[in-house]
Amino acid sequence: MLIYADSISQNTKKLLDYYKEIAQLDTLKDIINSNSQKQQKAEQILQIFQANKQNQEEYISKIKSELSQLNQYQILDLNELNYFKDSILSQIQLIDVNSISYLKTFSFKSNNLIDQFKKQKQNKNILLKENENLDILLKLISNKTNNCNENYLQSVKSELLKIQDIINILNFEQEIFHQGKKQIQTENLNQDQIDCLETLVNKIVDLNQQYQQLKEEDKNMLISSKLQPSSYLIFNNVFKLYNLLTKDKLESISKLLRRFPIFEIEQLVKPQPCQLEVEISNWNNYNNNGKQSYDNDGNQKFEIVKQGYFIFYMKIKQDSIYRLVIKFELLNQNKHFFIGLVGKSHKNCQQVYQNSLINSYTVSNNGERGVSKVLKGKCLRDVKYPQEYSQLEITFCVKKKMFQVCDYPKRENINEINDDKLNLIDTNQEYSLGFEFYYLKDSLTILECEELQQQN
C-alpha cells in the first residue's frame, strides 16, 4: 500500500515539474523582479508566450499522457491507510529488547553467510554441527519409516546446510518427544523389515476403522470373529490349552492378537456369506406350531404361532467354521430355547433338549443342559435375559469340535461346551445345527451368517 501511494506521489511530482518547465515560471519571475524597463519586460514575456504557443501541441500531448497514467491509479482510501498505520504501530509496540537483539543477531548471521557463500562457491563440504537444531531436524526427517528416498534427503541436507547457522539459533522447544518416549530406532532395520512394519501398520489402521462400528467390543480389546477370523481361529486353538494356561494369560493372548493382527495379513480363513438352507421338522406335526418369514431387513425369522415344540435344522458343512448372530424374543417366563449340533441319527426323531449327546446352548431352567464352560465373564445361564443381552454370537465347527456362544455385541461372557460333551462329537457322522423353542409368540431372527473358508 505504501509503495502504491509513493508511485502516485512520484507521478504527480513529475507532471508538476514538467508544467513548471514549459511554463518557465522561474524565468517569468526573474523578468518581473528585474530592473529592466517595462517595455523591455513586456517584450521578453511576449517572446516566452509565443514560443510556448508554437510548441503547444507537443506540450498538450505530453500532459495528456501524464494525466492518463495518473488516472489509472485508484483513489486511496484514507481510512484504509489509517488501518495499516495502526497495525504497523501496534506490531512495533510488541517488539521488546530481546526481539531487537535477536533480529540484530539474525541479521549479523545472514551477512556472515553471504560472505561465506562468496568465498565458498566451489566448496560443498560444509560440516554439520552435531546435536544442534539442523542435526535434530535431519534425523527426524530421515527416519526410515518416512520412506523418503536418498536423493531427497541429500538435497534437503545440502540446501539447509547453507543456512545452518540461522537454523541453529532458532529458539525451538527443547523437549522433542512425548514424556517417556523417544524416536523409533530404525537404523538397524533392513528395507524388508520396514516394509513388514508398514504392512502391519496399514492392517491395524484398517481394522481400527472397522472396530469403530463395534465400540463395545473394541473397548474390551476382544477379537471379533467377524473382523479377525484368522486370529479368532488361532485363539480358539490356544483355548484347547485351557488347563495349561491361566485365565489372565489367555486374556493377554487375546489382546496381543487384537493389537497385532499378523494373521489377518496372510489370512488363514476368509469369511463368506453363507446360504441358509433350513429344513423345518415335520416330526409329530411340529411344523404346524411355527412359521418361517422375513423381517423388514430381509433376515430369516422363525416364530411360534401355536404353543408346542417347533424344531428346524440348518444344513452345514462338517469341516467349515460358522459364525451366526441371532436375535431371540422369549416372552414366557418359563423360557425354553435350545441350539445345538444334531447328528443325523437323532434328526427328526427326538427333541433337541432330550438328547444328551447333543451339544447345545440353552436359555432354560432345565438343569445343567447347554454350555457351561466359562471362558470369559459368567455362564450365560446366570446372565439376565433380556436386561443384559438379547443377541447371541455362535461360532462352531464339527470337524474341529468347537462350539462357542457369547452375548453380542459386547461379548462380555464367552461360554463353550464342556469337554466331556464336546468329545462326544463323532466326526464320522453328519451333523446339522438344530433350533428348538416352545412357547407362543417366541421368535428367533438370524441377523448374520458367515462361513469361514480356509485359505490355501
Rg on CA atoms, Å: 45 Å
How helical, in percent, are the residues? 40-55%
Please report the distance between the alpha carbons of the first and last residues. Answer: 73 Å
Structural class: alpha+beta
Q: Helical segment tally?
A: 14
CATH topology of the largest domain: Jelly Rolls
- Main β-sheet description: 9 strands, antiparallel
Number of domains: 4
* String of helices and strands: HHHHHHHHHHHHHEEEEEEEEEEEEHEE
Could you report the average pLDDT, rounded to the nearest whole number? Answer: 78
Which CATH top level class of the largest domain fits?
Mainly Beta
Can you tell me the residue ranges where pLDDT is under 50 for at least 5 consecutive residues?
none
Give the CATH H-level superfamily of the largest domain. Answer: SPRY domain
Shape: elongated
Our estimate of the beta-strand percent is 15-25%
The tally of beta strands, per DSSP, is 14
CATH architecture classification name of the largest domain: Sandwich
Features:
456 residues; 40% helix; 14 strands; 14 helices; single chain; nine-stranded antiparallel beta sheet; five-stranded antiparallel beta sheet; alpha+beta; 4 domains
Overview of the structural elements:
There is one protein chain. The chain is an alpha+beta fold and 456 residues long. It has four domains: 2-71; 99-116 and 127-168, no CATH class; 191-267, no CATH class; 273-454, Jelly Rolls (Sandwich). The protein is 40% helix and 19% strand. The protein is built from 14 helices and 14 strands. Strands 1, 3, 4, 6, 9, 10, 11, 12 and 14 form a nine-stranded antiparallel sheet that branches. A five-stranded antiparallel sheet has the order 2-5-13-7-8, with no helix packed on it. A hairpin with a 6-residue loop joins strand 11 (402-407) and strand 12 (414-416). Helix 12 packs antiparallel against helix 13. It is elongated.
